[in-house]
Amino acid sequence: MKKTIRDFDLKNKQVLMRCDFNVPIKNNQIVDDTRIVASIPTIQYAIDCGAKIILFSHLGRIKQQEDLFKNSLEPVSKRLEELLGQKVFFSKETRGKELEQIIDKMQPGDVLLVENTRFEDLDGKKESKNDPELGSYWASLGDIFINDAFGTSHRSHASNVGIASHLPSGIGFLIEKELQVLSSLEKPNRPYVVILGGAKVQDKIGVIENLIHKADKILVGGGMAFTFLKAQGYEIGTSLLDAASIDFCSKMLKEHADKIVLPIDAVTSKSLEDETNNAAAINQISSDEMGLDIGKDTILLFEKYLKDAKTVVWNGPLGAYEYPKYQHGTKEILEFLTQTDATVILGGGDIVAAATQLGYKDKVTHCSTGGGATLEYLEGKTLPGIAIIQEKE
C-alpha cells in the first residue's frame, strides 16, 4: 500500500505536489475546471497542516515557441485563488532565480503554482523524457513529494518519477480514491459487465485482451463496433473502420463469442453534417452511409445484460455524442444505469466528458480522472508515476 499525504508531518515543510491542471482554455478563459476542483481537497489539507505548497502541472503539448503563449498556467493560478479563497503565487519560470526567490519568501500555508512543466520540452523534451538533471533540480526545491495527478501517472516524467526519485513521497486524495475504486475490479461483484465505445479498436486492444478473461460480458458500441462487424462480414458503408484491427476482432469473436455483444442496429447518415438520418438493422446499412449511434434495439439488448449487473466499467461513448442527434444511445444507457444498484465506473476520457455534458457525472459511482492512465490500469500495466511512490512500512 502506498504512502499518502496523511503519513507525513507537513508543518513548515516545502511540499512539492504534482497536480493535473491540464484543462481546456480558450481566449485565456478556463472552459472546464473539473480537474482543478478535484485537486482542492489535497491542496487544502496541506494548507491546513501548515505546509508551503509548490504545485506542478503540465498543460497541453509544447512543440514550438508559439505553444508557450497559449499554454500558460497563469489562468489556473487565478482559478485556484477563487477556489481556495487565498492568494496563489505564480512563477513564470520553471526553474531559476525568480522561482527560488518566491519559494524562499513563502510562509506556512502559502501556495505557489509553477509554470507549465512542459515548457521544459522546448529544449530536448526534458520534462517528457524525465531528464535526470531536471528531476533532481525540482526535487531540490522541496522536502516531500505528493503525486495527485492520476491522469499522468502512466507517464515517466521529470515532474513525477523524476522528483519522486529524490524525495520522501506519497499520493494525494485524488489518486488514493482512484486506486481504491479501480483496485476493487480485481475481485468485482458479479455479473461484471464492461462497455467499450470510442473510435478505434487499436486503442483498446490491451484492455480487451485483459478484460475478456475477467468480465462476464463486453458490450461494444461506438465507432469501434463497426470494425468488429466488418470482421463478421457485414456491410458497414462509410462507418469508422480500423482496418489494421480486423484480424484481432476476428480472433476475439472466434475465441470469445459468448462474451462479446455487438450492436444489432444503428442510427445512420451519409455524413455527420447531413440533416437526415435513418434507423437501420446491422445487415441493412447501405454502402454510402455511416453508423453514428447505436439503435433502439441495441439499447434494449445492452439493457438486458446490464439490468442484473453488479459492476459496470464503461470506457468510450456509444455514438458521436458531440452531435445532439447521436447522443441518444449513450444517454439512454447512462440513464438506465442510474436506475440499477450496480457499481458504475466511467473509465476516463470521452465517456466522462459525455456524462458531464449530459448531466450524469454525479449520478454514477465514480468518474475516473485518467484517460490513458485508466486504460493502462485496465490493461493490467504498471503506472510508473505511482510505482515510484514509497510503500507504507
Walk me through what this model shows.
This protein is α/β, with parallel strands linked by helices. It folds into two domains: 5-173, 3-Layer(aba) Sandwich (Rossmann fold), CATH 3.40.50.1260; 181-379, Rossmann fold (3-Layer(aba) Sandwich), CATH 3.40.50.1260. It is 34% helix and 17% strand. It has 15 helices and 17 strands. The protein has helices at 34-48, 66-70, 74-84, 97-105, 132-139, 158-164, 173-183, 205-211, 225-231, 246-255, 296-306, 328-338, 350-358, 372-379, 384-387; strands at 14-18, 25-26, 29-30, 52-56, 88-91, 111-114, 144-147, 169-171, 192-196, 217-220, 260-261, 265-269, 278-281, 290-294, 311-315, 343-346, 366-367. The strands form four sheets. It has a six-stranded parallel beta sheet, with helices on both faces. A six-stranded parallel beta sheet has the order 11-10-9-15-16-17. Helix 8 (205-211) packs parallel to helix 14 and helix 9 (225-231) packs across helix 10 (246-255). It is elongated and about 70 Å long. The mean pLDDT is 95.
Tag the structure with descriptive keywords.
393 residues; 2 domains; Rossmann fold; alpha/beta; six-stranded parallel sheet
Unreliable sequence segments: none
CATH topology of the largest domain: Rossmann fold
Rounded radius of gyration (Å): 23 Å
Proportion of residues in β-strands: 15-25%
Mean pLDDT over the full residue set: 95
Task: Please provide the count of β strands.
Answer: 17
Task: Give the overall shape, derived from the CA principal axes.
Answer: elongated
Structural class by secondary-structure content: alpha/beta
Any idea how many domains?
A: 2
Strands side by side in the biggest sheet: 5-6-4-1-7-8
Helix percent reads 25-40%
Distance between the termini: 9 Å
